Amino acid sequence: MMDGSVVVSQLGARMHYAVPRIFEKRSELAHFYTDICAVQGWPRLLNTLPSSLLPKSVRRLVGRTPRDIPVDKMTTFPSFGLHSAIRRLSHQTGPKSTANAIWAGETFGKLVADRGFCGASGVYTFSGEALELLTEARRQGLWTAVEQMIAPRSFVDQIACEEEVLNPGWQLSVCDDENSEEFAARERAEWAIADVVVCPSPFVAHHVIDAGCLPGKVIVVPYGVDDRFSIEERSRAGGPLRVLTIGAVGLRKGSPYVGAVARALGDTAHCRIVGPIDISAEAQASLVESVELTGSIPRSEMRAQFEWADVFLLPSLCEGSATAVYEALAAGLPVICTENTGSVVRHGIDGYIVPIRDVAETTQILRQFASSAEMLSCMGRNARERAQDFTVARYGERLISALRQHQRGIQD
User: Fold this and answer.
1) Which helix (H) or strand (E) holds 125?
2) Domain span at residue 47?
3) Are residues 70 and 183 located together in one domain of the fold?
């Protein structure tokens, strides 16, 4: 693959289209396929409307603008994208959500395979949506890479079921999802076909190998983010410590533990979660007693959230390598997270790694931040320093280098 051009195929605007941009910058992008964006087809018309008149969901679509990728190198499927979005919004959690993910992956993979590979020598795609595309690419002799963005479905479901026992009634159960094994089987089949499986963290790589992927196929490449959230050093505002969490409100993101920490801190801190709310009405009513919930916010409006915060908290139980953590580091926020977030945080330097489901240690750390402006400032500077090594440019260098080294290893 690395001796020629590459087709990149992805659903959604993952990491602001970082992967196709990386290949295009190196003149190695043969073509980019995605479901829907704001620069092709009827969605272009949305750019002519005032943003203030558009609902949040439509504003997010307008934000899907693949920068630095020539329009003639892109193909979108807006009718499929709209249908997929409607199905996804109708069933955001539970068995129907899994069924929709399988349908979307199969349909998108077939659409891309039918359009062809534009003379490329390789394909780069993403787990869950790759099987049909990888099968056709392998049949035509192309080199194939699949990115496993999060731990395998089998582990995700395992830890989710554990959380349901610990926090009953929070959200729809995944333990009886009849579609779960089919999705997990798709992942395993993708690993079997692919030449290389790209994981964003050692946490994901460990669980991919545990789930049956050949270790020799696995490479680890941490992500990077652009500078849109880089914020100059500032003094902490008076009043309670401002603690920011970004991500869907639910069990996998550790939202019950944000609530428990907020209750333990009381007036010492103001905790806020920014993201879609995927919990029951009863759980939400309990959580808002101690945590501010904003709901979803368009990416274009997210910078203000980082400017508001003093500290970033993500007690997630399962991620790939949460991009919100990279963004928080770039914003100069000390980060408290778990090993399961797959982060690049250095314990005790620019943040802290705490055990999953932890409340006591997290509360203690936040009390220290609240009482020590010097500690907060020092770790904030370290966070900015750390972020400089995890830009999109550095991500691109690491990705290309890792793919080439893997290919040389196979040839040797």
Assistant:
1) strand 122-126
2) 6-224+392-411
3) yes
pLDDT at residue 82, rounded to an integer: 79
**Contacts by 90-96, CB closer than 8 A, 24 or more apart:** 92/276, 92/278, 93/171, 93/172, 93/174, 93/250, 93/278, 94/172, 94/173, 94/174, 94/177, 95/174, 95/176, 95/177, 95/178, 95/179, 95/180
For residue 83, being part of any structural domain is answered with: yes
- For residues 321, 71, 56, 84, the Cα torsion angle rounded to the nearest 10 degrees is -80
The candidate with the shortest Cα–Cα distance to 399, out of 224, 141, 194, 215, is: 224
Query: Residue 55's pLDDT is what?
Result: 54
Token digits of residue 201? 């963290």
Both 199 and 250 in one domain: the answer is no
Structure tokens, 157: 């479901």
Does the residue 1 lie in any domain? no
Same domain, 292 and 374: yes
Give yes or no: residues 130 and 234 share one domain: no
Number of domains in the chain: 2
pLDDT along the chain (412 residues), means of 10: 80 89 95 79 52 52 72 89 72 73 94 94 96 96 96 94 94 84 96 97 97 97 89 82 96 97 97 94 96 90 93 97 96 97 96 98 98 95 96 95 84 56
Say if CB 352 and CB 365 are below 8 A apart. yes
Non-local (6+) Cβ contacts of 273 within 8 A are 245, 246, 247, 249, 255, 258, 291, 292, 293, 294
pTM: 0.89
Say which CATH number the domain at 176 has. Answer: 3.40.50
215 lies in the same domain as 254: no
366 with 396, same domain: the answer is no
Token pair of 330 as six digits: 């770039």
C-alpha distances out from residue 191 to 57, 215, 271, 280, Å: 33, 11, 40, 35
Inside any domain, residue 166: yes
Same domain, 284 and 213: no
Q: Which residues contact 130 (CB under 8 A, 6 or more apart)?
A: 9, 105, 109, 146, 190, 194
Q: Are residues 372 and 290 in the same domain?
A: yes
pLDDT of the residue at 53: 47
